[in-house]
Structures are given as C-alpha cells and as structure tokens.
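Worked Example 4.2. Read the sequence first, then its structure tokens.
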Amino acid sequence: MRERIAVACRVMAARGLADGILGHISVRTGADEVLVRCRGPRERGLAWTEPADVHAVGLDGAPKHPDGLGGWSVPNELPLHLETLRARPDVTAVAHAHPPAVVAADLAGIAIRPIVGAFDIPGARLAAGGVPVHPRGVLIRSRRLAGEMVRSLGDRPVVVLRGHGLTSTGATPEEAVLRALSVDGIARLALAVRAAGGVLADLPEEDLAELPDLGGSFNLEVAWRHETTRLAAVPP
C-alpha cells in the first residue's frame, strides 16, 4: 500500500493536480491506522514520492511506530484526512490536491456540472450528483476546520475548497485520484468554453441516462494502468 500511495502521489503531480511540495494522500488500513504521505528530511516534492515517505498514524494523529516517524513529519493538513475518515466509514482513501483550473473555475463562479457526456462518463456521473464547495480558503490544520470541510463534503465523493484546491475520496487511492482528475478535466473544459465566449449547459437528463456504466475494470483498472504507463513514459 505504501507503494500504491507513492505512485498515486506521483500521478497527481505529473497530471498537474499538485505542484511542488503540496498535496498528500492517505489510506485507512485498520480500525485505528492510517497510512499518509509525509514530508521527509530532504523533501523533494510530490513528483518524487517514494514508499519511504509514507508512514502510519492513528486516528489521533500520533505515529504508530514506537520510534516515531524517523525524521519525517505529517502534513499540516493531516486533520483533513483524519476527520474525513472518521466521518465517512464508506471512504478508505483521501487525496488532497491544488489543481489551478479547479480553483480558477470556482473563483470565476463556475460550478462543476455535467457539461460533458461520453467524453468522461465517470466524471459526468460524479458531476451530475453535485460537487459541493467549501467556502473557506484556509489551511485545514485542526479538527475544527476539518470538521467544517467534512460538513461541506457531506456524502459526496469530492469537495472543492475555495481558493485552495480539492479533497477527493475513494475506496482506493487510485479511485480518489481518478475522481480528482475528472473534476479537474471538467473545470478545464468549463474555463475553455467560457474563454471562447460559449455558454455552459448541463447535459440533458435523457443523454445522462444513456451513458453506460463501463464497469470498474475499465473505469478504474484500465484507466489507472494508463496513468502509471504515462508516468513511466514521462518521468518528472
């Protein structure tokens, strides 16, 4: 799992969801154990994440290893992960990123809506269910601030953080990142349509109803294989 989290972090960086040293992913691995991407003593950034950068903490944020984190430090926004996992038993993985297009679209008053159809079927379905916005552009570094974000998230898979980025959830780190990629893709298209003078409109209900569920093996496994192959072909 440490390797999977590291790869997911590298994919986020390679796809422009998290620049520099920003962004992190966590995965619940037990009733009171969470693996999370930490910052190392010689931090190089998300694009160079290795399994050694991933460490176990409890839901109270304390290191699970008796010797601590060995020179690594947990993210400042660790509460963002822990409060989401506490509140959402259906969630196993949490990804936090800072995609510029998502931030720009929200600040421009553009909601993440199902403006696409077969272009991105999982993304269209996600957007059709609604992508809420957390209105505070703060560093989510406490349980109180994280609780506010979780209330904004509600029962949805992704929440946009105003002036900040997004938090995406999933059953796996791969699913959480793919959902973030869909939201980012819709935000990019929306900005391009507006810039070209176009008017955004939701896909008609009858078209949404015609979109097939291509299944997890395609939406997740094949999609993620593409991301990891792309990552290997275009190193940081």
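Now turn to a second chain, presented in exactly the same format:
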Amino acid sequence: METTRSRKQLLLLGVAAAALMFAGCAKKTEVVTEAAPAAPMAAPTVAPVATPTVMKPSSNSLYFAFDMADLDAAARATLDGYATWLNANAAENVTVEGNCDERGSREYNLALGQRRADSVRDYLTSAGVEASRIDTVSFGEERPVCKGSGEACWAQNRRGDIVAR
C-alpha cells in the first residue's frame, strides 16, 4: 500500500512539473496537490495523579528504658511514621501521654513522664509537625497497662502514648 501511495505522489509531482514547464516563466501557476488524509489522532490521555494515602501508624505506644526519656531506634521509627501522617493530615492533632512504672516517688514519676512526653513532642516538631498541634501530659505511674510487678510488667508501663484528639 505504501509503494502505491509513493507512486501516485511521484506521478502527481511529475505532472505538476510538466505543467510548470509548459506554462512558461512569465506566468506563475499554483499547483495544489491533495495530501492523503491523515489518520485521526487520538486525544492524549493523561493518567490521573494518585495521591498517596498516608496511613496512621498502627502502634501508638513508644517504650523507654528504666529512668530514661531518650528515644531508641524503634521509637524513632514509629515517630517517623507519625510525623509523616501528621504532616499529610494537617487537621489532626495529638496528645502525648508520658507514663512510668511504679518505682520511684509519685513526684519523680510525674516529672519523668513529662520528660518522656516532651521528648516525643520534640522529635515530632523536629520532623516538621507544628508544636501547636501536639499537647503533652504526664500521668506518671497512675495509668499502668500492667498491674503486676517485675521487669516484664514494668517495661510495658514505661511508655509514651500518642492519642489523637
């Protein structure tokens, strides 16, 4: 089919050249050749841009070593997920609750729980979350998740909980 089209175009060009030669130089003749109709072009398709859905982390508790408010690698990984979620959901606000095990005085544990909550808040704000969206509170030893004694139980109570408000 392509060779037939090329032959037809070549023949048309030859006829047009001959017509120009016979017409002479003084008279200009406009030769109009019809081009083969172009195949209709499909409208370009634009793929919709998918907005990634950022899921809220499944764990809302971070755990601390005895008498410490430092974040370990597991806590920082959880907080990275929370920071991503909070930065993608500007209407969401959270409260960080600092908790302790039963060892130590009530006053000491309230202060330690506050340091733990503040440490979580500071990490989230360093990841771009506005401080005004994060409240902190210390419950000290008043809200244990495990009521027994011993290291296994105490470890569950040394935590910071992130609660949506």
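Notes for the reader: Residues 57 and 81 are 6 Å apart (CA to CA). Strands lie at 61-63, 94-99, 134-140, 159-164.
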